[in-house]
């Protein structure tokens, strides 16, 4: 089920979107086990607003796209990390097409891209967690937050990583989606989208101000000095 809320769109900025999302997530307020995980970088300002409004713990779930070896903008899959555990999600059709056409080096080239993205994932984990370690996920109500859903591949990878750590309830949440987000309903126990199926061409179109979120801003929002 996709939850919905009323709001004059587009959003002013990510903080505005986070407050609206918090309203749509009001039913989760008061749960002692509540944990909100933001997707860096743009999802963290949204998640931080929601966490503050719902009095929830805040952490990150990290995702990197695994680009096609010859077409990096084409997602062959994604690798994600949450709570110290990693998970991979693959676009099987793209991977099969690549391996059938690339010859003997096809798997080697794909493995090289995956290794590079895993290395970047580890770097980001150090940057965005510092020395504070990870939040426990097992047995908790976990809400995964991004600033918008385009294809859903990034969110699905994040959900897969979190699901592997056995939360008692897993929620996918974002202020908007470009298209119908039906693919998320199989990956999460609840999907919360104040502005679902917007028909917009990109996530940034849902915001009047949609600048880049810096690593320094993410660290500040997470309380890392």
UniProtKB/TrEMBL annotation:
Pfam families: Pribosyltran (PF00156). It comes from the Bacteria. GO terms for molecular function: glycosyltransferase activity. InterPro entries: PRTase-like, PRTase_dom. The keyword Glycosyltransferase applies. Keywords: Glycosyltransferase, Transferase. Residues 22-175 form the Phosphoribosyltransferase domain. Gene3D superfamilies: 3.40.50.2020, PRTase-like. This is Phosphoribosyltransferase. It comes from Arthrobacter gandavensis.
